[in-house]
Design goal:
Layout (H helix, E strand, L loop, with lengths): L1 H36 L6 E8 L8 E8 L2 E6 L5 E4 L3 E12 L2 H10 L5 H7 L1 E12 L5 E9 L2 H11 L12 E4 L9
Amino acid sequence: MNRRIVSTRHKLHLFLVSIIVLWCTAATLAQSAGQSANPTTPVSIRSTHLLGFENAKNNANGTLSIQRDALQFQKNGKPAIQVSIASVQDIFLGEQSKQVGGTPMTLGKAAVPFGGGRAISLFAHKKYDTLALEYVDSNGGMHGAIFQLNKGQAEALRNELVAKGARVSESANEPVKQSSAEVPSESK
């Protein structure tokens, strides 16, 4: 009887694993089919405008999108600020790591005994991409703007901008890694 229970459990586990594998495969196929169905869909990404766009507040959250031949940033409920893609002279990518959790996380790390706060620090960081643009305005003046995007989105946006006519120098092709310093008040 013991053998029968083990065999039944084993079959049940195999059945559940095969269902999960089939579900993941179907989800992957559906996602890739949905992405290739309409390749001309305008790009629209949630981002943070760190600085640079005229008439846009620093550290403002909004949507960075490509509309026809312009790159535009629009804060919720505000008029869009845009620049012509043809006027973009260079695009730089970067990676940034920020510690999340603020004061409660810092206090929690300090309270963990035997240096365990350092282990918590491994999970208390979020990675972002940065996208910096150099562009020329209608009067010939050179400007720059920096945006913070979720990890993995900056390169896709840069590729789309290049496909629409933005220029990129050879040195701008590799992302620059940057990380914020960890809070030094951790107990040792």
